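Fold in tokens:
===
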Amino acid sequence: MKQKVFVIGFQKTGTTSLEHALQFLGYRVYGGDKNLMKYSDSEALKAYIKKTLDSWDAVQDMPWPLFYKELYAVYPDAKYILTIRDTNKWIRSVVTYFASIRIPLHQKIYDVPCAEGHEDRYIERYEKSNRDIIAFFENKPNFLIMEMGKNFNYQTLGAFLSLEDLPKEDFPHARNNKKRKLPNYKLYRNIRSIYWNYKKNY
């Protein structure tokens, strides 16, 4: 069993790229788990975390970043990676991707109906989470900040995880094709939001 690695950055901070990198390096990565939001009892939540992650090496995706304290209580010797990016770039990416889709999990996290039109609340929650996580892990050697555009590469990850024989390039990113460019247009985002809100009955 590999040492546990927990990615505790918000969505749209390169977490998927980091997931692919970890998988390439042989880690079994568990994704988001909405069940985490159901627990009001801390001990029951920690028991669920331990049971769920027993057969996994790493986690990423929301809402795991909200539960870094519980993760640390269960796995104090694990490796913790906070992924971040420039706030303005982050919120643009969030709005472009999620638009006005009323995702219940996001509503619980940000306490607003959707991303588009509520950017200030999203930014407030994002920046506070990063500050709190950094303060919690201050001076802890098993914590790393990886910032998109700066140290998002195999060398940084490998040094942190004490790995060798790593690829020399940065992490892979999704190709910038026409389909990925469509959400830059507000009309497209509006139509897509209406479709998904109807389809998912949000």
In short: Residues 175-179 have pLDDT under 50 and may be disordered. The radius of gyration is 17 Å. The beta strands are 5-7, 29-30, 58-59, 79-84, 143-147.
